[in-house]
Amino acid sequence: QAPTTPTGLTASSITSSSAQLSWNASTDNVGVTGYDVYMGGTHQGTVATNSANVTGLSAGTSYSFYVKAKDAAGNVSGASNTYSLTTTGGTLTYCTSKGATSYEWIDLVELNQISNTTAANGGYGNFTNLTATVARGSSQTIYFSAGFKGSSYTEYWHVWIDWNQNGVFDADERMVYGSSSSSAKLSATFTVPSNALLGTTRMRVTMKYNTAATACETFGYGEVEDYTINVVQSSTYQNNVNPIAETLGFESKDLYSVYPNPANDHITVSLNGIEGEISVRIYDLQGRLVKQDVLTNSSTRLDVSNLSKGVYIISVDEEKMPINKQFIKL
Predict the structure, then answer these.
(1) In terms of C-beta density within 10 A (0-12 exposed, 13-18 middle, 19 or more buried), how is residue 65 classed?
(2) Rounded to whole angstroms, how far apart are CA atoms 190 and 113?
C-alpha cells in the first residue's frame, strides 16, 4: 500500500538563495524509503528524511513546494500541502507618498519590536530599518499617535501591509482605517492573513488631515512612514497590550456646527477638533462683515438679534484656512 500523505510542509531559514523545508513523516506497512521534492510542479530530487535544503533560488522570488513519500515496493503517496515562500534580497519599488508637517505629523508607531518616537520628518519618514515580526493568522495590535504644532485636528489613519510581497498596497491589504483628533496614543487591531508570504515586506502608516488617504498620494497636511514586517509561520512573541491607549474610531470631519438653524435671536457655535481662541466672523450675502467675535469655549452662544432677516455666512478661522457655513436669520 502507498505511504500516508506527508503533512505540515513548511519552510524556515529562508535566504536570498535557499530555504529549509520540513514536514511530518509518513508511515507505511513496508517502510518509507524517501520523499520526492517538487518545486512549481517539477521534481527536484529525493531525500531520505522529512526535511530538505533547497538551494540555487533567486533573490526576491516566490516559489511553491510540495512533497510525496515513496516506499520500497514503489508505491507513492499523495501530494502534501503546497507551501509558498519568497526568498529575501529582492528589490521592490513602492509608490511614493508624502504629506506636509506644518501643523501635524506622526510622532509614534509601535508594533511588537518597533517602538519609534519621532518629530516631524518633512512629510515622509523611511524607517524600513525597523522590523516587527508577526506570525501567520495572529492577532496584532498597532499603536500610533499624532503630534500637533498647536490646535489638534481630525486626522485619518491608514496602515497598509504588502502581504503578498508584490510591491503594491492592494485594497485588501489595508489593515487599519479610522479617524481621530486625539494626540493620545491610539490603538487598532488586525489579523495577519494565514496565506501571507513568509519573509520581509513593507508596512506603510499614513496620517492625513480631514479626509481619507490612498496608499500612493502627495497631500497637504499630515505624514507618511514606512516600516518592515517579517512574516513567520509561528512565533512565541507576545504582542504587548496597552490598556491606556484609545481605540481608533471614526470622528466627524465637520470641525464645527451652528444651531439652531434657522435662528431667531441667538446661535450656538460648537467646535469639534479646534482649540484655543478662535475668531468668528459673520458676513451677509454681499460679503459685508456684520459681526465678529472670539470663541473661547468649545460651545459659544452668539447674539444675532440685531441682524436683519436673511441668509448669512459664518466663518471660523481654523488655523489652516477659514471654514464657512451658512445660517438663516428669521
Answers:
(1) buried
(2) 16
Q: Could you tell me the pLDDT band of residue 274, with boundaries at 50, 70 and 90? A: low
d(CA 323, CA 314): 8
Grid cell in block for residue 3 = 505511504
- For 104-127, how does the pLDDT look when each residue is reduced to its tens digit (9 = 90+)? 999 999 999 999 999 999 999 999
The CA distance from 172 to 170, in Å, is: 6
Q: Is the pTM of this model over 0.70?
A: no
Find cell 504587548 and name the residue: 240
SS3 call for 173: helix
Whether 67 contacts 92, CB under 8 Å: no
What does the alpha-carbon distance between residue 199 and residue 131 come to, in Å, rounded to a whole number? 11
Of the candidates 277, 267, 271, the residue with the CA atom closest to the CA atom of residue 257: 271
Burial code (b: 16+ CB inside 10 Å, e: under 16) for 140-175 equals bbbbbbbbbeebbbbbbbbbbbbbbbeeebeeebbb
d(C-alpha 65, C-alpha 84), whole Å: 6
Nearest-angstrom CA–CA distance, 242 and 245: 6
Q: Enter the C-alpha cell of residue 35.
A: 520523499
Q: How confident is the model at residue 319 (pLDDT cuts 50, 70, 90)?
A: low
Place of cell 498620494: 217
Q: Count of alpha carbons within 13 Å of 123, Cβ hemisphere only?
A: 11
Q: Quick one: which of 328, 190, 308 has its CA closest to 248?
A: 190
Q: Is the peptide bond before 260 cis (omega within 30 degrees of 0)?
A: yes
Closest CA to 232 of 261, 192, 191: 192
| Residues whose CB falls within 8 Å of the CB of residue 179, separated by 6 or more in sequence, listed in order | 154, 155, 156, 157, 248, 249, 250, 251, 253
CA distances from residue 26 to 20, 76, 197, 323 in whole angstroms, order as listed: 18, 11, 26, 70
Contact call for residues 238 and 183 (beta carbons, < 8 A) = no
